[in-house]
Amino acid sequence: MIKWFTVLYFCCVALFWCNAQSDYTKCDGNIDINPNVTYDLSFKGKKGKDKSGINYYCNLPLSSNNFIYLHYFPLNDGQISLNYFHNEDSLVMFLFEVPPTYDCSSIAHKKAKLVACEFRGSVDTAAQVYQVYGKRNYYLVLHREPLKKSSVSFRLNYAAVNSAGKRIKDSLMLNMLGNSDLPIYEMHIRNAITREPVVAKIVMLSSSNLDGTYRASEVLLNNQKKLNAYIQLAAEGYYPKDIAQHVIAASGQADTFFLTPITHGSITKLDDIFFLGGLAIISDESLPSLKKLRDFLVLNESVSIEIQGHVNDDGTNSISSKRLSKKRAKKIMEYLVDSGVSASRLSAVGMGNTKPVYANPETDEQKEANRRVEIKIK
Length: 378
Hints:
The protein is an alpha+beta fold. The protein is built from five helices and 21 strands. The protein has a five-stranded mixed beta sheet. Strands 2-9-4-7 form a four-stranded antiparallel beta sheet, with no helix packed on it. Strands 10-14-11-17 form a four-stranded mixed beta sheet, with no helix packed on it. Strand 12 and strand 13 (about 210-215) form a beta hairpin.
């Protein structure tokens, strides 16, 4: 009885969550976007009566709810602008600022601050620049008359600036040296394309005093032992990186790790995906990561992916482990389809235990690293 109740509970949670997030023409279905990435998205041609509440802020004759709702959360003060490419028709862009404790519903409740109400013609390439502030919610709402279904290609440009309005690099030094005369381990995180610093979440596991979770683009630590470390790197707008059995010398060392911006044609691990033990049931802890994947696919309609399931199975790779890994990959595929992603863009593969991160896992962390989902961008 308890088992069936657990299964029913997680299914209901997933179904409710998917339905609440699947329609980006509505405020509560807004899509999280990353800066300086080009996206392609379709208007859905909604012809219903406008109930957004936007007319309260900007007196325009909006005759429909043919919207696209986007969300951006900058970590630092900066400047943004929105570029449009291959624009088929004129549209209107509304930019709203909302305190971090409020969400998109603030717009309809008349509690949001209107930053801009910008009309853009089909041949208008000029981009207005707007000031944004770190750790506040910004909602960009695009509107077009629903004469027909049409698409828009756009990029949110962002540059961090200081109080004087000058651009600053996204860098953060974490100096944890206890003694500068002892051997030093240096870690530097860089953009794989521009080679500029990237502030990332860094998780290090090496059974030493280096173990911990850090946030920085540059890290300085004392180390006097040869280590085999497991390192995880994650940053907004980049594919995460896992480095297994990374050797760190006792005499001092400097490593530079490169994070790749989200692009087509690569394989990446989908972090923070959890299943109930031995079952193909997704835990609700996984929903934020699944939403990120869904947003990426909705914003990039030309992208197809292969979902690769991996399990941690003792001994040889069995038929049962392949079945379980494929069932789990299919569950993620089902979630994406329920969230509005076309099934023709998705495929699921069960890898079983053929490609473990750790061939002979000894800790729970190593077993969890083997038990993963990877996404191949086609």
